[in-house]
Fold:
Amino acid sequence: MGMLVHSREKSCRSVVPGPTAGIVALLAVGLTATVPTPDAHARGGNKPGSFKVAKIYFETNASACDMGIQIAFDTEGVVVGTFRDPSGRPIHTIKTGSGLKAIGGQTEGFLESVEPVISELVSANPKCVPDPEEPTISLDELEQYFPAGTYSFEGTAADGTKYRDTADLTYTVPDGPVLLSPNGDVDLDPDNSIEISWEPVTTTIPGLTPTGGPARVDIAGYQLIVYDANAGEAPPEFNVVVPPGETALAVPVEFLQPDTEYKYEVLAIETGNNQTISEGSFATGPTTTLPTETPSNAAKASAPGAASSR
Structure:
């Protein structure tokens, strides 16, 4: 099963055979192109009564030193459900009603928590810039709210069928990718593709492993998201996942516009699904391509008496 793909507006997702196949066709409507990658911790779908997908993991922003929980699930349809932490405390419930319950309930879902700033991340990562509007908590508090361990997923279908599954939450959180280029560059040529590159991630993020420093981490893949910084809350995205051996990707000219400020995110995704974002930006300059003269206009210009007539 492939990795869960992050999207700023949770847009539809499409799987393509390779890093660039079909991307241009997806760009116009802001869809996602992904490369299938192994997922050692994807559970469900292997036995009767299990969830097709049951995942809980951290998304961390290395540029802002914040962390949040994300949960994803998929079933044949449940009308009620409960997700519990390792001690049995409910952390999320599902309860359908009226028409949604009548037609069989909810089949899948994705939720993302508020992302508080973690004080230990701020201390260990001095280059990050926390959002002053987000709450700040300690790592101890986060571990109390979301202890590492096995979380249970339970749901009941309209016909009484019980679904049960589990997913592991760890604090093996990858470091944010070090962005190489572009690095705030401006006046880039929009008539040529722009390559975004980063250093490979090999360790956990500083601040979450107080004893012994960062630990080694296994990366399952990287995700690149590029979007117009001034296009509102749900701009079209260039959104691609690549295998762990790739650390550069070209943004095609079909996506780029002249005189536009872009923001981009590179996510490092480890094999347990935890993912960490680093944020960058660049801006394009004016186009350098002259308008193409059409054959019909050229014929008119060369025709006798075409200069003017009033």
Notes: DSSP finds five helices and 18 strands in the chain.
